[in-house]
C-alpha cells in the first residue's frame, strides 16, 4: 500500500469517528465526480463554483479537476461519507472555501494536517473582503441570523470571485510550475471574458431598474449581489442554512415588503423548498416565483449541458433578476421557453 493510500485509509476512519459515516444521497456519478484512476495530477474541489473556476484555469494542462459534491446537492449543509476524505488525501491539491463554511472540509483539512499528508491546500477565499451577514437587511433587523459574523457567499459578486481565480491560479502554479504560463493565461482570459462581462451585465440590469428591493423566498445567500449593485436583497430565511425554518413572522414581513413595493414576482432558490414561495403566492399579490441559485449545486441537466458559473448566471440568475426588478416581463427575460419552464417551478 502506498503512503498516500495508507493515509487515506486512516483519514477516512478519523472522519467517520468525528462526523459519523453518513451515506451520500443517491446521485448520478458524472465525469466531474468519478472516483476512477487519473493518469496525471488531480485537484479536487469542495464547492461547485470553485471547481468550475479551477477546471477553466487548468484547461490544456495535465491537471484534472474534480468536484466532490454530488449532483443535486448544496456544497454545504450535507455530511459526506468517509470516501470524500480518501479522495482528498489521494489528490494532489484540495481547493476549498476557507474555514467555517463547510465543516466537513474543515475536518478533512485537520485530518490532512494530523496525518502529514502532502495534498496541497488552496484556499479560494484568501484575501477576500467579506461583508457582515446583516448588511443587506433593514436597519431594525441587524440582529437577525448571525449578525455578529460575516457572510461567506462572496463568490456571487463576480468582482470578488476574481480573487478566488487568482488564489486558485497561484495554487496551481505552485503545484505544476512548468505550466505556470498556461494557468495564468487561462485565468486572465476567464477574469476578462467571463467575470468582468458578468459584472457588466449585472450592472446594466440593476442600473435599469427603479426598484431598490428584491424579495427572495430563499435563504440569506444573495446579499453580495445587493451590496455590489445597490439593491436590498430580502431573504425569507434570514440565516445561512438553506434548510432554515420559515417562521410566521418571516412570512408577515415578506408580505409587508411585497405590498409596500408592489412586487409582482419573487425569486426562489432552485435547491430549496417551494413551500414558502407557494404560501406567498396564496397570501399576497405575488403572481409567480422564478429561480435563483448561489451556484452551490447543479442539476443533472446542467451537468449534461456542461453549465458552469457563467452559464448559470446567464440562464438562471440574470433572467430572474430582470423579472423581479420589473425590467422585463417573464416572457422576454430569458431564452425561448424560459418563462414557461421556470414559472412556479417544481
Automatic annotation (TrEMBL):
Belongs to the bacterial solute-binding protein 9 family. PANTHER family: HIGH-AFFINITY ZINC UPTAKE SYSTEM PROTEIN ZNUA, HIGH-AFFINITY ZINC UPTAKE SYSTEM PROTEIN ZNUA-RELATED. It holds the Pfam family ZnuA. Keywords: Signal, Transport. GO terms for biological process: metal ion transport. The lineage of its organism: Archaea, Methanobacteriati, Methanobacteriota, Stenosarchaea group, Halobacteria. Gene3D superfamilies: Nitrogenase molybdenum iron protein domain (3.40.50.1980). This is Zinc ABC transporter substrate-binding protein. GO terms for molecular function: metal ion binding. The keyword Signal applies. InterPro entries: Bact_metal-bind_prot9, TAT_signal, ZnuA-like.
Amino acid at each position: 500500500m502506498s503512503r498516500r493510500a495508507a493515509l487515506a485509509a486512516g483519514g477516512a476512519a478519523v472522519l467517520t469517528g468525528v462526523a459519523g459515516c453518513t451515506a451520500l444521497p443517491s446521485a448520478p456519478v458524472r465525469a466531474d465526480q468519478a472516483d476512477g484512476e487519473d493518469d496525471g495530477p488531480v485537484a479536487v474541489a469542495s464547492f461547485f463554483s470553485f471547481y468550475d473556476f479551477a477546471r477553466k484555469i487548468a484547461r490544456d494542462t495535465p491537471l484534472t479537476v474534480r468536484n466532490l459534491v454530488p449532483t443535486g446537492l448544496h456544497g454545504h449543509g450535507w455530511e459526506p461519507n468517509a470516501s470524500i476524505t480518501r479522495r482528498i488525501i489521494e489528490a494532489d491539491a484540495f481547493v476549498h472555501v476557507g474555514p467555517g463554511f463547510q465543516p466537513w472540509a474543515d475536518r478533512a483539512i485537520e485530518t490532512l494536517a494530523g496525518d502529514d499528508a502532502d495534498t496541497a491546500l488552496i484556499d479560494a477565499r484568501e484575501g477576500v473582503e467579506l461583508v457582515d451577514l446583516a448588511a443587506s437587511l433593514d436597519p431594525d433587523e441587524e440582529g437577525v441570523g448571525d449578525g455578529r459574523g460575516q457572510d461567506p457567499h462572496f463568490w456571487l459578486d463576480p468582482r470578488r470571485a476574481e480573487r478566488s481565480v487568482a488564489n486558485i491560479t497561484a495554487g496551481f502554479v505552485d503545484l505544476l510550475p512548468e505550466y505556470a504560463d498556461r494557468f495564468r493565461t487561462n485565468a486572465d482570459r476567464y477574469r476578462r471574458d467571463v467575470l468582468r462581462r458578468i459584472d457588466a451585465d449585472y450592472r446594466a440590469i440593476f442600473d435599469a431598474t427603479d426598484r431598490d428591493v428584491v424579495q427572495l423566498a430563499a435563504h440569506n445567500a444573495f446579499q453580495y449581489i445587493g451590496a455590489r449593485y445597490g439593491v436590498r436583497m430580502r431573504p425569507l430565511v434570514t440565516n445561512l442554512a438553506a434548510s432554515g425554518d420559515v417562521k410566521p413572522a418571516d412570512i408577515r414581513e415578506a408580505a409587508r415588503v411585497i405590498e409596500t413595493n408592489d412586487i409582482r414576482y419573487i425569486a426562489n432558490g432552485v435547491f430549496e423548498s417551494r413551500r414558502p414561495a407557494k404560501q406567498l403566492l396564496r397570501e399576497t399579490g405575488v403572481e409567480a416565483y422564478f429561480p435563483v441559485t448561489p451556484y452551490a449545486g447543479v442539476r443533472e441537466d446542467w451537468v449534461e449541458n456542461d453549465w458552469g458559473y457563467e452559464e448559470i448566471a446567464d440562464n438562471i440568475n440574470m433572467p430572474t433578476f430582470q423579472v423581479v426588478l420589473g425590467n422585463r416581463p417573464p416572457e422576454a427575460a430569458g431564452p425561448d421557453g424560459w418563462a414557461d419552464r421556470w414559472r412556479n417551478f417544481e
